[in-house]
């Protein structure tokens, strides 16, 4: 996927729109590497429907493999209906939806059941946050392996040839 980070700021005087591919944006790189998630994300007591919520909302990662027609490349929501009350609420929503089996949704969304592991670089991030330039710190802690960088470059080259 080629999703992006977009910052849209507006005031009475001006409007600023800034978009970057996710892998170029330092904040997104650190976020997707789980460097600064809340501690509760690593030991979430609400996994596997234990929150007591009537519905659970999430991003539907992997929708392009399960229901490609629902993939607009802008983000597709996942709604888990946990209770009869949740089903009643869901039925009133003015949305376009497609029901899928729980196991299908779980394929790209394992964090529904399993807490995010603590990355080995997390402690280093917090030890150095505020002491080191944020951008250099993120670069250092999220540097992609050469193999990944070469694969991405080869993909861009092949696209240009088409």
Structural description of this entry:
By secondary structure, the chain is α+β, with helices and mostly antiparallel strands. The protein is 38% helix and 15% strand. It contains 8 helices and 4 strands; from the N terminus they run ββααβαβααααα. The chain has helices at residues 26-32, 39-42, 63-66, 84-91, 102-107, 122-128, 134-142, 146-161, and strands at 4-10, 15-21, 55-59, 77-81. The strands form 2 sheets. The chain has a two-stranded antiparallel ribbon. α1 (26-32) crosses α7 (134-142). The chain starts with a strand and ends with a helix. The mean pLDDT is 90.
The gyration radius over C-alpha positions equals 19 Å
Average of pLDDT: 90
Order of helices and strands: EEHHEHEHHHHH
Q: Counting H and I runs of at least 4 residues, what is the number of helices? A: 8
Q: Give the spatial strand order of the biggest sheet.
A: 1-2
Secondary structure: elements and pairs:
Blueprint: E1 4-10, E2 15-21, H1 26-32, H2 39-42, E3 55-59, H3 63-66, E4 77-81, H4 84-91, H5 102-107, H6 122-128, H7 134-142, H8 146-161
Antiparallel strand pairs: 1-2, 3-4
Helix pairs in contact: 1-7
Could you provide a short overview of the structure?
With 162 residues, the protein is an alpha+beta fold.
């Amino acid at each position: 996927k080629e999703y992006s980070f977009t910052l849209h700021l507006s005031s009475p005087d001006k409007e600023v729109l800034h978009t970057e591919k996710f892998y170029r944006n330092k904040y997104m790189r650190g976020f997707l590497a789980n460097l600064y998630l809340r501690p509760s994300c690593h030991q979430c007591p609400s996994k596997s429907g234990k929150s007591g919520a009537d519905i659970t909302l999430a991003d539907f990662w992997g929708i392009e493999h399960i229901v490609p027609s629902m993939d607009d490349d802008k983000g597709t929501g996942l709604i888990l209906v946990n209770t009869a009350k949740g089903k009643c609420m869901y039925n009133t929503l003015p949305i376009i939806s497609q029901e899928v089996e729980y196991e299908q949704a779980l394929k790209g969304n394992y964090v529904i059941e399993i807490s995010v592991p603590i990355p080995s670089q997390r402690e280093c991030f917090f030890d150095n946050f505020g002491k080191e330039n944020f951008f250099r710190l993120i670069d250092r802690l999220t540097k992609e392996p050469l193999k990944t960088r070469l694969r991405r470059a080869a993909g861009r080259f092949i696209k240009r040839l088409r």
